[in-house]
Amino acid sequence: ATMPPLLSAIANAGRHGVLVKSAVVMERLGQVDAVALDKTGTLTEGTPRVSEVRPLEGSDLDEAGLLALAAAAEHPSEHPLARAVVDAARERHLPVPSAHHFTSTPGVGVKATVEGRTVEVGAPDRLLTGSTAKDAERMARIVAPYEERGHTAVLVQRDGIPVGVLAVADRLRPDAAATVAALGTLSGTSPLLLTGDNPRAAAHLASEAGIEADHVRAGLLPEDKVDAVRRLEADGRKVLVIGDGVNDAPALAAAHTGIAMGRAGSDLALETADAVIVRDELTTVPTVVALSRAARRLVI
Ligand code: ADP
Ligand code: MG
């Protein structure tokens, strides 16, 4: 027997490196008329590297001590920034103490007990919510130069006191700009960038990827990504969300169709998404949207 068009489209998508979980999903892919992409791990390669280790004035830590402390707290995390920190410590052969009572907050960072002290590693403005305006301003001056270059600044606090800043640099995927352009053409609108990262790093990356400046939403918590998707859907749009992180899972679930990055994606994103990019290429997304449209023409 000849295969029904949607099933052969699923087989075809598989050959292009995309696992589409059902015929319903294969059909829905072709309906999308808006696209929202996550930044870290989706538009970027997701293998960021530590570019700077900076103990803060007044802290007793040197670079090695700061990096080892951050790596200890980040060790249990599966976030790409955490892997960058742990890898940097490993490359320098630093002894990394063990961590206890680990917790992580998507879009914020991690917290753990290291050598009897509370260590937090994460987004500077998110960790500094309780600090004075003067301290926040001082921190903003320290992190701005990194963020303007598109790097992500990560704050390290010990017992609630800032002890250092790490800068982490990620690269745009080589096929990001081509994919953004293709998805723009297929959906009829410029794709939206949804990120938990800071506005400066987001703007830098968006311009490299060809995303319009007014289509960038930065500093988002997981539920803010959901809100952004719901707002588009309230306008009658069928939104395709592409993401990789635990922080993207709610938006992947809320979207008309969700696609997760498979290679480095979190388990939760892979389970929540309707389709998974198995081969690590973003250009496969416009390909499967086109496959869906072709199959739908045969079905209808
Ligand atoms: P994105 O939406 O771009 O994938 P996330 O929502 O995962 O980004 O993270 C947003 C921000 O939260 C990061 O840029 C970082 O500042 C902070 N953050 C989240 N998890 C961690 C972590 N494990 N270590 C350090 N910082 C983190
Ligand atoms: Mg991500």
Automatic annotation (TrEMBL):
Source organism per entry reads Streptomyces mesophilus
The text of the family note is: Belongs to the cation transport ATPase (P-type) (TC 3.A.3) family. Type IB subfamily.
Q: What's this protein's name?
A: Heavy metal translocating P-type ATPase
Can you say where in the cell this protein is located? Cell membrane
